[in-house]
């Protein structure tokens, strides 16, 4: 049929989840919880439906949810967004990111991504007709290299996509790094898409460095959040974008025609559920305990653990365990050992293989124990 995207394959998350299901492996590949969300949140959905919130909501999302987000962002990060003109409810972070890209990237505009990066960014830029400029994070530590980022900025640079806490490496940007980005961009007109979907999964007492905290960044950023991550409901596909009014106006031009709006009852339910901050304030401790449980088990194997400072991912170096490349190793691990993982090479355009794979620990303790029993032989 004359494919428009001859080199585009199927996302690694779909591939590995299908393989895990087919082989009956414990799926620590694709990032999603295998436990239930809070029953209160489900009751809030039923209540919203019973109250008649079942027709189209306003195009930017229901006002109570936008107000709840504005209140939360101000309380946590000290920046006040206007609920009417600066916050938009999206169909998850995925639609938020592609909509922001389509809204700002003109054909030929350059967009910087920091590799390894989440697998939707590059296709999004290409769909917009933009030019992808790949800047590597520092090999080994995955920290941003501002000399390299600075060298990649040209008069054609339209935007940079940043992501902290970072998928897949599980690193977390420091306040100094966010300030360095702010300083670097100050003399430019480069916009920022700040993917902060793991904002509530930062461990060891560290605070999330949201772009909203830094005035020079907030003024040029689309800040992307996802309720799927925060409330254990990845299948709901509801997120938000916070951005200054002028950027939000551009965002909504695309949003109104690529999704128009997002399902109504979930939005009302999320708005009422957000009245209590406890669920997201408790999330760091909740996931830190799972990280530590999983890491303690992995420490008994020959995998070498990389630090997991945030997200719900744990990366490991496989060198001492296998001679296989990452992608082959993940296939082997799923089929032969019965545990699915994601190769980091899937997050690089070049398929760069550094013998590191990613496990997701957003699982019931029993699931983690089950996986660890299988991994114990390695
Ligand atoms: N960005 C990153 C870094 C992610 O890890 C994910 C989900 N895995 C997304 C965006 C997409 O989030 P959502 O499910 O809300 O579309
Ligand atoms: N973001 C999830 C991950 O990194 C997967 C989301 C998806 O399947 N698209 O595992």
One letter per element, helices H and strands E, the order comes to: HEHHEHEHEHEHEHEHEHHHHEEHEEEH
Extract low-pLDDT stretches: none
The overall pLDDT, averaged over residues, is 97
Number of helical segments? 15
CATH architecture of the largest domain: 3-Layer(aba) Sandwich
Strand content: 5-15%
Structure description:
The chain has helices at residues 12-23, 39-50, 63-77, 92-104, 121-127, 146-152, 175-185, 215-218, 227-230, 245-258, 264-273, 278-281, 283-298, 326-337, 365-375; strands spanning 26-27, 87-90, 110-115, 131-136, 157-163, 191-195, 221-226, 239-242, 304-305, 313-317, 339-340, 342-343, 356-360. It is an alpha/beta fold. It has 2 domains: 12-30 and 282-375, Aspartate Aminotransferase, domain 1 (Alpha-Beta Complex), CATH 3.90.1150.10; 55-276, 3-Layer(aba) Sandwich (Aspartate Aminotransferase, domain 2). The strands form 3 sheets. The chain has a 7-stranded mixed β-sheet, with helices on both faces. Strand 6, helix 8 (215-218) and strand 7 (221-226) form a beta-alpha-beta unit. Glutamine binds at residues 11, 13, 30-31, 167.
Brief digest:
With 378 residues, the chain is an alpha/beta fold. It is built from 15 helices and 13 strands. 40% of the residues lie in helices and 15% in strands.
